[in-house]
Amino acid sequence: MRSIDDQCNSIKYDGQEGTSTVAIFVTGGARSGKSHFAEQLASKKHDSGIYIATSEALDDEMAERIRKHQADRISSGFDWDTVEVPLQLSDKLRELGSRTSDEMSRRVVLVDCLTLWLSNWFFALEAKANRETMLQHEIERLAGEVSEYRYPLIIVSNEVGDGIVPMDALSRQYRDAAGRLNQAVARHCEQAFLVTAGIPIDLKRFAFQWDEL
């Protein structure tokens, strides 16, 4: 069986050797290995990267998770610049996309993760009567920026809808919004991987094609 390193090396990219204009979507469940796969993919194919972290240290447990992720990135030896973007991810991608190709064509941007970004918006809009409409607007804005982004991009998300149906209405609203978010962003990515038990599966390679009917 091939290791994650072997699978990363086998993934094909467009453009010059070692460069990519491909947007890659990586999703999976909690502790599935999706972030590790995304980071390995980035380090195998690029010279350096910008790590966009969407999480916020709202409690001690989350702060410890963030510290561990930061330590893991440092120990990997890959040249990461980390920026924290809990809400304005669309604006950040637009700003990065406006930079010169000399600066960005060999640098990968890795976003980890979309569902935390959505959660941040979910609670930022908590008091709004039209929260669902505003969330959908932010999802569409982000999907649009992903479709326009012209440099290497890897986006990590979660499959929060694969578990049991949540008991309360608020959790069900979040689950549904996360499903819409994943669909909207993955639609604009040339490659999409589902990671389960540390094993990445190339979804778009095996996806059903309507034109084959």
- On the 0 to 100 scale, the average pLDDT is 88
Distance between the termini: 33 Å
SSE arrangement, N to C: HEHEHEHHEHHEHEEH
Give the strand order, joined by hyphens, for the main sheet.
3-2-4-5-1-6-7
> How would you classify the helix and strand content by structural class?
alpha/beta
How much strand content do the residues show? 15-25%
- Helical content, roughly? 40-55%
Radius of gyration using CA atoms only = 17 Å
Question: Could you give a short account of the major beta sheet?
Answer: 7 strands, mixed
Features:
globular
List the helices and strands and how they pair.
Layout: H1 4-10, E1 23-28, H2 34-45, E2 48-53, H3 60-76, E3 80-84, H4 89-97, H5 101-104, E4 107-112, H6 114-124, H7 131-148, E5 153-156, H8 169-186, E6 191-196, E7 199-202, H9 203-206
Parallel strand pairs: 1-5, 1-6, 2-3, 2-4, 4-5
Antiparallel strand pairs: 6-7
Helix pairs in contact: 1-2, 4-7, 6-8, 7-8
